[in-house]
Amino acid sequence: MMPAVSVIVPCHKAHGTIADTIESVLAQTFTDWECILVSDDGTSPLDHLKALGISDPRLIEQPERSVASGTVAPRNRGLSIARGGLIADLDADDIWLPGRLQKLVPLAHEHGVAQDVLECFSGDRILGYSGGRDGAVAFLRSADVVAFDFPFHLVVRRELMGDEWFWHDSFVQDAYRAAWLAATSPVAWLREPLMRYRAATGSASQGLAGSRRIEVSYDRVLDSLRSGEGAVFSSDDRTRVIAGFERKKALNQRHIHAVENEGAAPAFIEWILRERISGEPAG
Questions:
Q1: Long-range contacts for 96-99 (Cβ within 8 Å, ≥24 apart)?
Q2: The model's pTM
């Protein structure tokens, strides 16, 4: 029997956090899922979990063919074997609250794409939230998505995904993919924190090195948008999305400058929350 949801978890040197992440999936009140662990560090996350006493037949291991393959290849690999009618992505250091799938699955079925509010944390500190917490549902178009400076971890109907997660390795694939999906299926945004997002300086996208790699990703995405790639966008949408990514690139440059001047490396999310730079999307 096919699962309702395929959860895809890229795993790269995640032994310190993966147990908490997978236990949060196992604790979901919605239980009709498979969880595909895609390792690209030459180790077996399933063996590691079993050594910790964590085992479940819904956990599936699918090694990536190359080592340290980046942020997109493991997701593409997981998507290639996913059997669920809905696809959800989860990083190996983040945590779902128990009711996340229970609340987002119906929204994704009805509207195509669903997202919740992130509770951003570092260690034992809650840094803040990616939006309001009133339980309302808003609908985000492409321009709303690119006005948002927090990651997107969507639940998406499989037929909207296409054949691959993203078209090149990129540290900004979540924002581009969300904007691309929102052009035809506005994101149903549940204003309730159902996911704990780890803002760790040492993570691939959060510290100074990550911000410098993100700079390259913004340039590549902007080049493709300006060349007309991505026919799903209307002319007006494309103009707004380009402007949104230009703003995001400028913000990333401000983060790099701030880190270099402070002589420290605060995580990007912690920085924008601390400086009150970003708020909710326009929707």
A1: 96/24, 96/25, 96/27, 96/28, 96/194, 96/195, 96/196, 97/24, 97/193, 97/194, 97/195, 97/196, 98/24, 98/27, 98/28, 98/29, 99/28, 99/29, 99/30, 99/194
A2: 0.92
